[in-house]
Automatic annotation (TrEMBL):
<dbReference type="InterPro" id="IPR011146">
    <property type="entry name" value="HIT-like"/>
</dbReference>
<protein>
    <submittedName>
        <fullName>HIT family protein</fullName>
    </submittedName>
</protein>
<dbReference type="InterPro" id="IPR001310">
    <property type="entry name" value="Histidine_triad_HIT"/>
</dbReference>
<dbReference type="Pfam" id="PF01230">
    <property type="entry name" value="HIT"/>
</dbReference>
<feature type="active site" description="Tele-AMP-histidine intermediate">
    <location>
        <position position="93"/>
    </location>
</feature>
<dbReference type="InterPro" id="IPR036265">
    <property type="entry name" value="HIT-like_sf"/>
</dbReference>
<dbReference type="GO" id="GO:0009117">
    <property type="term" value="P:nucleotide metabolic process"/>
</dbReference>
<feature type="domain" description="HIT">
    <location>
        <begin position="4"/>
        <end position="107"/>
    </location>
</feature>
<dbReference type="GO" id="GO:0003824">
    <property type="term" value="F:catalytic activity"/>
</dbReference>
<feature type="short sequence motif" description="Histidine triad motif">
    <location>
        <begin position="91"/>
        <end position="95"/>
    </location>
</feature>
Amino acid sequence: MASVFSMIINGDLPGRFVWRDDEVVAFLTINPVTPGHVLVVPRAEVDHWEQLDPDLFAHLSRVAQIVGQASATAFDAPRMGLLIAGLEVPHVHLHVFPAHTLESFDLTKAEQNPDPAALDDAAERIRAALADLGYADRATA
């Protein structure tokens, strides 16, 4: 059975995408720890990050870094958080989010019912920042 992330990637479930390429996508999580919380996900459905092909892991990390740079600008974040938890969905994903305090790293404090308009706004802000960084071709809805 396909993971929920595969269903989002394939268009079977909605997603607020901020990045798409042949190997990796990034979209806003529906349970953000801070506004602008993005998941960077390989298209390949692999459960454990340490089992990823090293080149794919390098690309996944590079995309997380680019999205993090855009998000830092979009949300005037003092730091960007990066987590690999892997317990929520059996499909590798990197959490990339504006971090203001150590509490920002606590996924158990994620917002359970965020305002859809706020999520849409966050996605648009990140896409605009990605375009400003020269990634307009990847920063697609």
